[in-house]
């Protein structure tokens, strides 16, 4: 059962998706799926190649920006920023719980100049708490 949570009009997050969720993502109009989970993190979960294959079968673009235990880097923020800039439709990002995907989106938005309070509110509406990330968001946004 899909658990797609919108953060903005063009970006939603989800906990680990199944192969069946890919068809649901297509039905809901998503143009791309972004995997923020490293392969092998949970061997019983569908791995990146499984989701990529299912996405290709549905005509949905697929990208992987894995976020492991070492946390976030500017390269990951750059990668999501590029995908957002090149997007031809709504994006669905997923990880184990949706938290890493939400954090990466929030960091990208803050660096892009979005108002931090609005970012935090959008995440909260989707069920994600950005309190621990707030200092980094503020720093990236330059106080906006």
Automatic annotation (TrEMBL):
UniProt keyword Repressor present: no
Cross-referenced Pfam families, in alphabetical order? BLH_phosphatase
Which domain of life, per UniProt? Answer: Bacteria
List, alphabetically, the Gene3D superfamilies matched: Protein tyrosine phosphatase superfamily
Q: Where is the Beta-lactamase hydrolase-like protein phosphatase-like domain?
A: 3-110
Q: Which UniProt keywords apply?
A: Transferase
This protein's record includes keyword Transferase: yes
A GO term, aspect molecular function: transferase activity
Entry's NCBIfam families? TIGR01244 family sulfur transferase
Q: What name does UniProt use for this protein?
A: TIGR01244 family sulfur transferase
Question: Which species does this protein come from?
Answer: Sphingopyxis soli
